[in-house]
Amino acid sequence: MPDENFENKIYNILITKGNDPDNQYGFYKERIDSQKDFLYNEYNTLENDLTDELFEKIDVIILLFGLYSNNQEVFDELLNKSKEFDIPLLLIRFFGMEFILKELEEKCDAVVGWNPHCIIDAIETLVNGEDWVKPCDIADE
Question: What is the pLDDT of residue 93?
């Protein structure tokens, strides 16, 4: 039987937002908002001050790989803050592409594509302190 607290959890998510010519952020918002049973407060790197107080309440940091090349300084800051505050990192691949930088992937706790169920599953798994074993949207090789 699922834990009642788990089902009612409201996640505090910090997501990359910035120079985004392909509207990866908007696409992400459509995907995550389509999941009606997933409750969250969103903070982002464009509209929120990245203070220690903010990082103290964040459950997971979401990096949109499609924003990496135009926002590397923000990504670097989030990678450092993730370590400092022990916040799991979720990397979402660029829409329609499997390629991501290996060095960035190695710094993240989970990597998924754009399947909304995979995104939610990864967030819940990481916040619950479980290891992310394998992306749910990649077939066995």
Answer: 86
Overall pTM surpassing 0.85 (yes/no): yes
Residue 80's Cβ-side half-sphere holds a number of Cα atoms within 13 Å equal to 9
Q: How far apart are CA 18 and CA 16, in angstroms?
A: 7
Can you read off the two tokens belonging to residue 47?
């509209």
For residues 125 and 110, is the Cβ–Cβ distance under 8 A? yes
Q: Tell me, what's the pLDDT at 7?
A: 62
Q: Which two tokens stand for residue 123?
A: 């967030």
Q: What pLDDT, in 10s, does the model give residues 95-118?
A: 666 667 788 888 999 999 888 988
DSSP 8-state assignment for residue 93:
P
Nearest alpha carbon to residue 58 among 48, 67, 66, 68: 48
**Which residue, among 26, 98, 106, 14, has the nearest Cα to 59 in the 3D structure?**
14
- Region at 123 (left for phi over 0; alpha for psi -120 to 50; beta for the rest): alpha
Amino acid at 81: K
Q: Specify whether the CB–CB gap between 11 and 122 falls below 8 A.
A: no
